[in-house]
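I'm stuck. Please check this protein.
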Amino acid sequence: MFPLLAVAVLFEATYLHRMADGPVWEMVEDQVNRCRTYWWSTLLYMQNYLTPACVGQTWYLAIDVQLHILSPIILFWVLMGKQRIAWAALLSGLAAILTASTTYIFIKEFPSTVMGRPDRLFDYLENYYMNTLTRASPFLVGMLFGYIVKTKKLEMSKIVTVCYWAACFTLSTFIIYATYPISQPDWDNQVADSLYNSFIRPLWGLFIGCMIFACFNGYGGPINWFLSLSVWKLQSRMSYGIYLFHYGLMNAVNYSVITPPFFSVKSYAFKFLAHYSLSFAVTFFLVVLIDAPCSTLFKMLLGGGVGNSSTFPGGGASSGAPEIAAQGLFAHPAPG
């Protein structure tokens, strides 16, 4: 994970501004200057609290790492082996985070959206959207479902399965369409805004957790079939790298224009495919060249090895790092 992040920082600090030019290219140069000044905060996973940031989209990566560092506070009790203590720790942690974040959100009176409210944009982004406290509740929901998947086996009849999925899709539909009324120009309800900001993300985590839990226990049906298609295998290996590099590459394309952009569905569909293809190609090259070998080396240093010789064609041992990297890149995920 870290090697690709370091390469992304290096790319934006050194080469990004050399890719193109144009009347609005100073936007990219500003991005490069931020990286040259604040590169260290990104590599230390602190950029969500330090602005302006380098590789701006990695604010979420910083939050994820921070929450992983703090997670042993709860995992200590979960791993004691007693279910009552584990449940008490998980539920107490979730309740405490929800209480703290909800109180903070109500005190600060954040809007539920900044569309049409440019005066609140920076306050919303810095103090709510990229705040570890307000992002912790979905993480706790994920920990809770991880424990459930590990310790519980789900058995449902066909009727219960249908009701289960109906409830899941009802919840997801509510979450998606709840954004419509709060986006209207005449919307003005601070209590509803605060409740939305407090609970919409843990509710989405609840929906995702329920979907994974059902698929894991064999009740996913066509949803599990679709999510398990081999076509997603390579893309899943590339997703982290695309996440790191897509924003800089998109800016390089978008800010190199020399004429005003024209909006149409076809033109933006083409632009999406171009952005995705470019990001995928760059990421594929960097994953094969840097990430896969580094991951393999890290596993070898930890003593885990890279698998026995039977995993390679012909049953022989691997002849070098490229074969090992390719095996790790294209292999199917382990079951379970």
Notes: Residues 77-227 form one domain. Confidence is low (pLDDT under 50) at residues 308-336. The CA atoms of residues 214 and 220 lie 6 Å apart.
